[in-house]
Design a protein that fits this description.
- The protein has about 350 residues and is mainly alpha-helical.
- About 75% of the residues lie in helices and about 0% in strands.
- Strands 1-2 form a two-stranded antiparallel ribbon.
- The radius of gyration is 23 Å and the shape is globular.
C-alpha cells in the first residue's frame, strides 16, 4: 500500500477538522443530546467509515479493504467497551448530563492522540524487529485472559491512581459549570471536572495498550491502523448517548472481546513463527509450516463473535427481566394473600 506524505497530511487534517467541527457545533454549548440527534450522527459516522473502507478496497485492493474492515470492527468493539468504562467514570464522579459531552470529546481526542503515538511506535517496531509479533501475541493472550475474568465492578474514579492525584492536587468539592479550575479565597483549586478528564485520559492509555497490538495483528499498514482507529472514535460521543442504557445490557461484551483478542493473539504468534528470525527458536529459521490466517477468515470470525456476544447478552438480560418481573408479581400476590388472611 503506497501512502504518500501528502495523503497522510490530508487524512490527518480532515480528521482534525471533523473534531473541531464537532466541538464548535455540538460540544461548546453544554446540553444533553436528544436520541434523534445522537442516532443521526452515529449513522452518519458509521456510514462514512463503511464508505471509506469501500474506497480503500476499490483503490488499493480488497485485501487492504478487508484488513480495514476487520480493523474497524475490532476497534469499534473495543471502543464500545471503552464507553462502558466512561459510563462508570461519569457515574463515579457524578458528572452532570449537560457536561458529559465535553468530557467525552476531550477523552476521545486524548484517545486518538495516544493511539497515534502507539501506532507510530508499533510501525517502527514491526519494521525493524520481526520478533515483536511474539511479544504482541503474548500480550494479547494475557489481555484476553484479563478481559474474560476481570472483575466488572471496578470503578476507575476510586482507583489507586486517582487517589494519588487527589492527594497531590487541591480539589474543590463541587462542579463549577464545565470549568477545570476555580479560585476561592485567593487560592486556585481544580474542579472535579479536571479529575474526570485525568481519569478518562488514564483509561484511554490502558485501552490503547489493548487496541494497537490487536489491530496490528490484522494489518501491518500504519495508514489502515490510523484510519480504522479514527473512524472507530468518530461518532463515539453520540453513540454514548444513543446506547447508554443498552451498554448495561451487553453482559457478554467482555467475553466476546476476550475471544477476539485471543484469536488475534494466536494469529500474531503464528505469523511470528512464519517469519521467525530468533536464533533460539528453530535455529533462527522461519517455520513455514505455521499457517497464516487469511484476512477474510479474520473478518468473518470477528463479525460473528461480536454478533453472538450481542445476541447472547440481549437474550440473557431479557430472560433476567422476565424472571425479575415474575418474582415481583409473585411477591405482590403473596403479600396480598397474607393481608387477606390477617
Amino acid at each position: 500500500m503506497n501512502i504518500t506524505p501528502l495523503v497522510w497530511i490530508i487524512t490527518i487534517a480532515v480528521t482534525i477538522a471533523f473534531f473541531v467541527y464537532e466541538f464548535f457545533a455540538h460540544v461548546r454549548k453544554p446540553h444533553e443530546p436528544t436520541i434523534g440527534e445522537s442516532a443521526r450522527w452515529s449513522a452518519f459516522y458509521i456510514g462514512l467509515a463503511l464508505l471509506f473502507g469501500v474506497g480503500v478496497g476499490a483503490v488499493s485492493g480488497w485485501t487492504y479493504g478487508g484488513e480495514y474492515f476487520a480493523g474497524y470492527l475490532t476497534e469499534k468493539a473495543l471502543s464500545i467497551d471503552n464507553l462502558f468504562v466512561f459510563l462508570i467514570v461519569m457515574a463515579g464522579f457524578a458528572v452532570p448530563r449537560i457536561y458529559q459531552q465535553k468530557v467525552l470529546m476531550i477523552g476521545i481526542v486524548i484517545a486518538l492522540i495516544m493511539r497515534g503515538g502507539f501506532i507510530a511506535l508499533g510501525a517502527t517496531l514491526i519494521e525493524n524487529f520481526s520478533w515483536i509479533f511474539y511479544l504482541f501475541g503474548a500480550l494479547l493472550l494475557f489481555l484476553a485472559y484479563r478481559q474474560a475474568f476481570a472483575e466488572g465492578d471496578h470503578n476507575p474514579a476510586n482507583g489507586r491512581f486517582m487517589r494519588f492525584v487527589r492527594r497531590i492536587l487541591p480539589i474543590s468539592d463541587d462542579y463549577n459549570g464545565d470549568r477545570l479550575t476555580v479560585k476561592r479565597d485567593g487560592k486556585r483549586f481544580f474542579t472535579p471536572m479536571f479529575l474526570v478528564i485525568i481519569a478518562i485520559g488514564f483509561v484511554d492509555l490502558i485501552f490503547a495498550v489493548d487496541s494497537i497490538p490487536a489491530i496490528y495483528g490484522l494489518t501491518e499498514e500504519a495508514y489502515i491502523v490510523f484510519t480504522a482507529n479514527a473512524f472507530a472514535l468518530m461518532g463515539l460521543r453520540q453513540l454514548y448517548f444513543l446506547i447508554g442504557g443498552l451498554l448495561e445490557r451487553l453482559v457478554y461484551l467482555a467475553q466476546g472481546l476476550a475471544v477476539i483478542l485471543a484469536f488475534i493473539g494466536v494469529k500474531l504468534v503464528l505469523h511470528a513463527m512464519h517469519v521467525n528470525e530468533l536464533p533460539f527458536i528453530n535455529g533462527g529459521e522461519p517455520m513455514l509450516w505455521a499457517p497464516e490466517i487469511p484476512i477474510w477468515f479474520s473478518l468473518v470470525f470477528i463479525g460473528a463473535t461480536i454478533a453472538v456476544a450481542t445476541i447472547a447478552s440481549l437474550a440473557k438480560t431479557r430472560k433476567d427481566d422476565r424472571r425479575a418481573a415474575l418474582d415481583s408479581t409473585s411477591g405482590t400476590l403473596t403479600t396480598d394473600t397474607e393481608k387477606e388472611h390477617s
